Amino acid sequence: MVIPEAMLPPARIERVKGNFGEEVLLRNDAMFTAYRHSAGELSAFFFALADEGRIIANVCPSCGVVNCPPYQQRCPECNFTDMEQIEIKDVGVMAATPVITIFPPARFKGDAPFGTGYVFIECGDSKTADTALPLRVRTTQGMLRRGIFKRDTPIKIVFKDERQGEITDIFAVSQAELTREQIAKSPLLESDLEWNMPKEPEFEETEESKMAFSKILFRFQALALKVSKSKAAQKDLANWTRRVEVKSGGFFFLLNINDGKMSAGYEEPDRETDLILALEDPNDFLPYLERGAALTNLILSGKLWVSSSELETITRLDRLPRSLRKDGV
Amino acid sequence: MREVAVIGSGMTHCKSRWLSKTYLELAQLATKNAIEDAGIDVSDLDGGVAGIYNDIFEFMAIPESPLQGIVGLANKGFSRVTSGGATGIYTMYNAYNWVASGMHDVVLVLGVEKALDCYDFEAESPTPAVVQTIAYSWDPWFERQIGNHASSSYAQVIAAYRDEHDGDLTEEASAKVVELLCQQAQNNPYAQRLGEAVSAEQVLDSRYVIDQIRILETCVYTEGACALIFASKKGLARLAGKMKQEPIWITGAACANEPYFVGKDPKRHKVLHRIQSDEIVAREALKQARLTVDDIQVMELHDAFVPQLMITLAEMGVVPLGRANDLVNEGIIMPGGKLLLNPCGGLVFSGHFVGGSNMMSTWSIMREMKDRDLEHGLVHGTGASLSMFGGAMIFERRR
User: Fold this and answer.
1) All structural domains of chain A with their residue ranges
2) Contact B354, B224 (CB under 8 A)
3) Which residues does chain B have within 8 Å of residue A133's beta carbon, measured at their own beta carbons?
4) What does the alpha-carbon distance between residue B384 and residue B354 come to, in Å, rounded to a whole number?
5) I need a labelling partner for B10 at 20 to 30 A (CA). Which of A139, A233, A304, B83 fits?
């Protein structure tokens, strides 16, 4: 379904408190318009992606400008000269450092974190298109983080195995993650790549890290106690259940989140955990525990390793400090 | 072209959610306040221009239609403007032209927006639905399909600027600007975040909503309204004896939009590391006013995101491109510096009710120019994908 069932509003009218304590009426509703949306003259571009694994562009025979995506059929700079369709390559460079979305629009909630950027695709010897194709950027090495892509990073366009004719049929991967053969293959398919989660990092066990880790566990336990006293913090963790293994230097503890409640302890895992958080220096948790610095930022910086690309648990943990402040806990 | 003055302004309180008021009530309240501030009667209005960014936020197509009679303009000219985040400045630009062209002498300039009636029933929060609604402003074939939205779009410009100017636009400098805006908002009785205290350290600790932008560097979603009254000299003569406010004159007005698609040639494409529209509109508006940027004592700039605000200041020539850190490090915009920036707290702390935010900036700049006895001010708006829509107006106080 285009609209997930969970996003559909149940029919309901209720009376709630307004800004001045008075009663106001609140009615669930939707601005509902379905579409059978035409790609019109852009269809040729999407057909080439879906059916042939090729990328096409438009070139102006007068000034030579190459547009990819081929968003216009005539060149306004040349008094609307008709542009011509050409095939271009499936390699290129990033126009700028792409960005990683942490907090997405409703429609893309399950995708975060995801990267989007603009790619100048090669269209001849040492020449790239004059316009940039907006694309998702992905890594074969787990969660997308800073440093994988920068301006001018050479990229390869990868085609999904199942394609329907939309821009998400393709995405960009850094050539640094590919073999020479993969870069030369055209079209390179998603199934041609190894989508490995990176190996869990191993950190040296020291007396210092043991001490620091114990301190961190104690502070997470204190945080859990505070959550039990804050309605706002409990709301942050409502309808969410996760067993999170927190690891560093050979030590671990379990962080249990269970529908508004939280606990932390040395409990042996009796079943598989949902998420592993690993970091070299346990003290890196201190800014979060002491003053509410965001855990998300630790992940983006690469200091905190996460075993899956699910960010929801981290996002919920990041809300806790503000909620605790709000409730004066 | 005739000279145009602003003779009154009216605000509603900015709130994250106005459960007690519809956009109809907010619009009428702001209009009433502006009329009272000007000292005129609603019958003195010859027509009006309304800025309403998004039909989806108002839960109604042609949302301006019920406003016609409500704001006292029955059977008079009343046009709606929508230009993304720059809706406010474009509404003012249109109203300015209504008066400057000689068509009308006294014109209502109204900006109003709801936003938080949108709701994501899955997340049990309005915010993802608001972000999604704004994301409908991106094209449905390319940008929207890959998940681009307002924050990613501005973050892309910021990332590209940082690529181009290595070491400039540091997170520390941006955090200090946030702290400054927070302090200044405490002087704005209508500010959404009145009473908040945010330090630079808190900004640096706050989470990224997207790489490049932290949550405390972003503007807030707001519901509210602001109205202004524009008048010609002929209009002022007609209203003589009634007016309560000293007129503030608009001596420069410019708008410019960059192309939508990204590319290499700034003359025909959007170039990622620039907000060229800001440079163009500031240059053109200042030229009309026969001023340079150094003559401007107070600016109310559109700060959708604080790093973008710093780029905008560089584009306008307050500092050279690549030297945005100087705004903070050299104290240019800091307390006691040569430029008073966003004294209302900006859109980050006062609120961003999109259709009327730039009118709020004008309300603020008029207040500051009178209270601080300043001669020249500049109001700016930006918006749309990759910050490509831009507008600026120069204001002059004649003593």
Assistant:
1) 40-192, 207-326
2) no
3) 142
4) 11
5) B83
Q: How far apart are CA B37 and CA B34, in angstroms?
A: 5
pLDDT at res. A2: 87
Distance (Å, whole) CA B68 – CA B6? 21
Give the tens place of pLDDT for each residue, A233-263. Answer: 999 999 999 999 998 877 889 999 999 999 9
pLDDT of residue A197: 66
Most A-contacting residue of B262, B311, B388 (CB-CB within 10 A), to test interface: B262
Closest CA to A97 of A148, A155, A149: A149
Q: Is A236 on the interface with B (CB under 8 A)?
A: no
Phi, psi at B384, each rounded to 5°: 70, 180
Contact yes or no for A101 and B147 at CB 8 A: yes
Instruction: State the Cα–Cα distance between residues B115 and B217, nearest whole angstrom.
Output: 20
Asked if A105 and B132 come within 8 Å (Cβ–Cβ), the reply is: yes
ipTM: 0.95
The CATH code of domain A207-326 reads: 3.30.1050.10
Superfamily of domain B4-117+221-238: Thiolase/Chalcone synthase (3.40.47.10)
A114 at B interface, C-beta within 8 A: yes
Q: B110: which strand partners? A: B50, B227
Q: Does residue A286 surpass a pLDDT of 90?
A: yes
Chain A nearest CA to B14, separation (Å): 12
Report angle CA B349, B352, B354 to the nearest 5 degrees.
170
Q: What pLDDT digit, counting tens, does each position of B5-31 carry?
A: 999 999 999 999 999 999 999 999 999
What pLDDT, in 10s, does the model give residues A169-194? 999 999 999 999 999 999 999 999 98
Residues of B in contact with A9 (CB under 8 A): 119, 121
Helices B127-135 and B150-164, axial angle in degrees (round to 10): 70
Judge: A10–B121 Cβ closer than 8 Å, yes or no: yes
Give the largest CA-CA distance in chain A. 74
SS3 label, residue B67? helix
